[in-house]
Design goal:
The complex is a heterodimer of chains A (about 240) and B (about 400). Chain A is built from 7 helices and 13 strands. With about 240 residues, chain A is α/β, with parallel strands linked by helices. In chain A, α3 packs parallel to α4 and α6 packs parallel to α7. Chain A starts with 9 loop residues before the first strand and ends with a strand. Chain B contains 13 helices and 18 strands. In chain B, strands 7, 8, 9, 10, 11 and 12 form a 6-stranded antiparallel β-sheet that branches. In chain B, strands 1-6-2-3 form a 4-stranded antiparallel β-sheet, covered by helices on one side. In chain B, α10 crosses α11 and α11 packs parallel to α12. The longest helix of chain B is centred in the middle third of the chain and has 20 residues. The chains are: A alpha/beta (about 240), B alpha+beta (about 400). At the A-B interface, α4 and α5 of A face α9 of B.
Chain lengths: ~240, ~400
């Protein structure tokens, strides 16, 4: 068990053939993530990294049965990509791109929620279920399998946190980098109950950052609803 | 990115948001000419700097004659204005705005910002204009009316009614004028990818007109690419020179008061590093995020900027490589020691992608004042010890 993603999760990549998309998709494949294809308009029908390329997310979903999309498109195309994923029935979009305009994200997230699609990010390292599935740009080797769930606003503090947890002899169930932009997808309050319900997770590490009041909301939520131990650090 | 009051008012005018007439001046002569063009009989001479609280700091003054405009312009232009937002060092006034005086009956507050919790813009209004809105929020939060507008439907009549009834505006003509004002402000907020707009005060004149007496705007940096007209309003003299220089190289730099220079990847880890230094009894000299594309050149630049600060007694390089590869940072450190005279101890902690290669590179280079650290706590402790020893 884990949360949101595991070894069977089928993932497509939007912005598959771009420089960043290619590099990180390759790393994810090497980690064992089931990347079953990608989307780059006008490159449909070709192959990239041994996987099929599609013109649209709809085509990719219809052919591969993917439920998760990892988004690497340039900043001004992020909203379009997120809405396309939602429209095509993707269940979770992991948005790595940094620098998406806030107004775009506002519209994209509202549309995603209307379609029941969860989002992570933007401007985040992604999500990883240790030794099963990495969807993002984190260095996979530091996430040893274990029973600690990790939620972090900051990218590099996700790595620092996971590394310290593993050095102390514990390991990670799932780690989620939620990003620190003004508009983000899944946050502490949505992820905490998922970890609470996950039998593989015995404790939770929550890493925050100044800006906004998500951590305050999370603290109130933890007090009310979370029975597992939570260790928190706010940078 | 922030802009000046006179620029915000140019945008307001474009959208039909009423403002007093005014003209920007960069010299006393120009200020006098502007006053003559405006015609008087009352003018306001206003310092143009990117900070609030200008009036209290002596940067906004009323003139009743052209001679007085000249005298006040001479006083204000070139002064270093200290307000609660400038820090103790203040800001040099390089531009003035000469504006028609207004017949003020009531002072209100009107602003638009993003409500992060509701994930939509919120219009904030208050009858307590002319005061810092933070103080109003603290002392009498019930006096702030907040109306969130879902961009999917835009500004509707009911939003306007909530505002005017909340503010106690009862005259139907005035209600109509205020609602029109607010709807235009919302429109320009959205269309220009603004991060915040603040009009404090927004005044009601004796004749029942609403005027933006002040105007403050900030913009979403990520969206500036699609607003070349806004980007053209950038006033680089208002930005910190070191921060700007750092920005050219993709570095994000903020200078602080302490003794330990920090070079870290990622804003969160950079703050965590500063926290750890503080916890170990040291003080950080700066915040520096090298970002995701660090290379030899950017690292060298980082050292150069950090070392410009004479208070720096040691530098702590803390990199957790994800996208950033540690071997590149190690090479950057070597390169930097050739380009820049690094005369203080450099504590280096490189972890993550290609960390063993990085350790090898540094070991082989064998530079005298480069000290290796194994983790964040170890690095911070060594940096604090090195800074103490240097005293």
């Amino acid at each position: 068990m884990s949360i949101l993603v595991n070894k069977d999760t089928k993932v497509i990549v939007q912005g598959f053939t771009g420089k960043e998309g290619s590099f990180h998709a390759e790393q994810c494949l090497a980690y064992g993530t089931k990347i079953v294809g990608g989307v780059t308009p006008n490159k449909g029908g070709t192959e990239h990294l041994g996987q099929p390329v599609f013109n649209t997310v709809k085509d990719a979903v219809a052919t591969t049965g993917a439920t998760v999309s990892m988004i690497f498109v340039p900043p001004v195309f992020v909203a379009d990509a997120v809405m396309e994923a939602a429209d095509a029935g993707i269940e979770l979009a992991v948005i790595i791109t940094e620098g998406a305009p806030v107004r775009d994200m506002q519209a994209a997230k509202a549309y995603a929620m209307k379609h029941g699609m969860k989002t992570i990010g933007p401007n985040c390292p992604g999500i990883i279920t240790a030794e099963e599935c990495k969807i993002g740009i984190m260095p996979g080797m530091i996430f040893k399998k274990g029973n600690v769930g990790l939620i972090s606003k900051s990218g590099t503090l996700t790595y620092e946190g996971a590394n310290q947890v593993c050095r102390e002899g514990f390991g990670i169930s799932t780690a989620v980098g939620i990003g620190g932009d003004p508009i983000i997808g899944l946050s502490y309050k949505q992820l905490l109950p998922m970890f609470e319900a996950d039998p593989e997770t015995h404790a939770i590490v929550m890493i925050g950052e100044i800006g906004g009041d998500l951590e305050i909301q999370a603290a109130a939520y933890i007090k009310e609803h979370i029975t597992k131990p939570v260790v928190a650090f706010i940078a | 990115m922030n802009i000046h009051e006179y620029q915000a008012k140019q945008i307001f005018a474009k959208y039909g948001v009423p403002t007093p007439k005014g003209l920007m001046a960069e010299s006393v002569d120009q200020a006098v000419k502007n006053a003559e063009i405006l015609g008087g009989p009352i003018w306001v001479v206003k310092a143009q700097i990117h900070a609030g609280g200008r009036g209290l700091g002596g940067g906004v003054k009323l003139a009743r004659s052209i001679e007085e405009v000249e005298k006040l312009s001479r006083e204000i232009l070139g002064m270093t204005l200290v307000t609660h937002q400038t820090g103790p060092e203040g800001k040099l006034v390089q531009k003035l705005y000469i504006e028609d005086g207004a017949d003020i009956k009531d002072e209100l507050y009107l602003g638009v910002v993003l409500d992060r919790a509701r994930e939509m813009p919120v219009i904030m209004a208050s009858t307590e204009g002319g005061m810092a809105i933070e103080d109003v929020a603290h002392d009498s939060p019930e006096k702030i009316i907040k109306v969130a507008v879902d961009p999917a439907i835009g500004f509707q009549g009911f939003h306007g009614r909530e505002l005017v009834f909340g503010l106690g505006i009862t005259d139907p003509t005035e209600q109509k004028k205020f609602i029109d004002f607010a709807s235009k402000l919302y429109k320009l907020y959205m269309e220009n990818d603004a991060e915040m707009i603040e009009i404090n005060p927004l005044v009601k004149t004796g004749s029942g007109e609403f005027l933006a007496l002040d105007g403050k705007m900030g913009f979403d940096d990520s969206a500036l690419g699609r607003h070349p007209d806004i980007e053209a309003m950038r006033d680089i003299s208002e930005e910190d020179a070191d921060e700007r220089e750092a920005g050219k190289y993709g570095l994000s730099y903020v200078s602080l008061d302490g003794e330990i220079g920090c070079m870290v990847n990622g804003a969160g880890l950079a703050m965590g590093t500063m926290d750890t230094i503080n916890y170990m009894g040291g003080t950080p000299a700066n915040f520096l995020d090298v970002g995701g594309k660090a290379n030899a050149e950017t690292v060298a630049k980082g050292f150069e900027i950090i070392l410009k600060n004479p208070k720096v007694k040691a530098i702590f390089v803390n990199i957790f490589g994800g996208i950033v590869r540690c071997d590149r940072i190690a090479n950057g450190i070597l390169e930097a020691t050739k380009l820049v005279d690094v005369h203080v101890p450099v504590i280096v902690r490189l972890d993550g992608t290609n960390a063993p290669e990085a350790a090898e590179i540094l070991r082989n280079a064998n530079i005298a004042n480069v000290i290796a650290a194994t983790d964040l706590a170890d690095g911070a402790a060594k940096a604090v010890a090195a800074a103490k020893q240097a005293k």
